[in-house]
Design a protein that fits this description.
- By secondary structure, this protein is α+β, with helices and mostly antiparallel strands.
- The chain is built from twelve helices and 19 strands.
- Helix 1 packs across helix 10 and helix 3 packs antiparallel against helix 4.
- 46% of the residues are buried.
- The model has no long low-confidence stretch (mean pLDDT 94).
Length: 389
């Protein structure tokens, strides 16, 4: 991998280019500023959470090669805050001599979830049984093979429960296909997994292959959206070691560089299956800003720049609660003073202009002797914030 060029002043920090300007980019920008790095953000929207925080902003789509190339010429290393940037676009930048991390190869293996599952199987990592569903015949085969219920999923562009449809009966088959955009949208099926707990692990892998593994967290969901994260998870040391080994193996299998979010299912017998991986900093790792020696965001920047990784050690029990909008309306928060009055609560608001149901508008982190005590503090503060129509 070619080293990052720092221009005429070899001692100056690199300029980081981020494709995507949402809250993940915002938190990356904040971490970069602490390291004296400049960040250039590119996003299709004219206004986004990271726009004002970044040193430079470009409005444009990554499907526009001219805009993308002009953006790339201004930065030393390019990274992503979501998995929706097409791997072909990233590969074109690499062929032009630009450094892209995670690489286009990594993104190609991860952003299509069917390809991701196939790759994890080849790497010997346990996953939920799955099947490709490209037409009516394969859909019927999935129903016959898995029985009901099973889950129909989009291969790409799915997040926070969007892109999933639970098929409870034969009558739901065509409803599911229609709800997900038809077979042409790219679908696959997964067997229903009766898990007892969802776990999450953040793994940061550097350019040389060195890794920092963050503590295993319990991830709690509400309507398929992460509502809270507790760390450390209430599991045995053996289960924690197995989860970390599985997470590192997944990132190594795609030669990942940067921070990756790994989601796992724990079954009733204590065994684990990998649900999915995200090639970027992840919602389940927001707690690391306050709770760990070096956050997932800072370590992502260190990794893509070839710098030494920071410690992922946990300072105390911690919990993170997402602030989810309940209705559509203004992005202006109501109850800010009340939330800030909660002792021990660390409030993060993303500055989104509009709210809509289940949209992540911010989060609260708290530290305490136990994760449950931290959760009580974080939930109390999060309840104070509302977004009215």
């Amino acid at each position: 991998m070619r080293p990052i060029s720092l221009g005429s002043d070899k001692n100056s920090p690199p300029v980081i280019g981020i494709l995507g300007g949402g809250q993940l980019a915002l938190m990356l920008v904040r971490s970069a500023s602490q390291l004296g790095m400049r960040v250039h953000v590119m996003d299709p929207a004219p206004v986004c959470p990271a726009k004002d925080a970044a040193a430079e902003f470009t409005q444009g789509t990554w499907s526009d090669p001219e805009t993308l190339e002009a953006f790339a010429k201004k930065v030393d290393v390019i990274t992503v805050e979501n998995e929706f940037v097409e791997a072909d676009r990233l590969e074109a930048l690499e062929q032009q001599g630009h450094t892209v991390l995670p690489s286009s190869r990594t993104m190609r293996l991860v952003q299509d979830k069917l390809v991701q599952k196939q790759m994890l199987c080849r790497a010997g990592i346990p996953v939920v049984d799955f099947r490709a569903v490209a037409d009516e015949h394969e859909l019927e085969d999935a129903a016959a093979g898995f029985g009901f219920p099973f889950v129909l999923k989009k291969r790409t562009l799915g997040y926070d429960g969007q892109g999933n449809f639970t098929v409870n009966s034969h009558a739901d088959l065509h409803l599911g296909v229609k709800a997900l955009g038809g077979f042409q949208a790219g679908l696959y099926a997964e067997k229903w997994c009766p898990f007892t707990m969802e776990l999450a692990v953040i793994v940061t892998r550097g350019r040389t292959g060195m890794t920092e593994v963050y503590p295993v967290a319990e991830s709690r969901q509400l309507h398929h959206v992460c509502s809270s994260v507790l760390v450390p998870a209430p599991i045995t040391p053996q289960q924690g070691a197995a989860a970390c080994q599985m997470a590192v193996g997944a990132v190594e299998a795609v030669s990942g560089v940067g921070s990756f979010g790994i989601e796992l299912f724990m079954l009733e017998d204590g065994s684990l299956q990998l649900n999915e991986m995200a090639p970027r900093v992840h919602n389940s790792g927001h707690y690391t800003i306050e709770a760990c020696d070096c956050s997932q965001f800072e370590n992502h920047l260190r990794a893509i720049c070839g710098l030494p990784l920071g410690s992922s050690s946990l300072r105390s029990g911690a919990a993170m609660v997402n602030i989810l909008a309940e209705t559509s309306g203004s992005g202006t928060p109501v109850g800010l003073a009340e939330a800030l009055a909660v002792s021990g609560a660390c409030l993060h608001l993303y500055g989104k202009l509009g709210a809509k149901p289940r949209r992540k508008m911010g989060h609260v982190t708290a530290l305490a002797e136990t994760p449950l005590a931290a959760l009580n503090i974080a939930e109390l503060a999060a309840r104070q914030i509302q977004f009215h129509s």
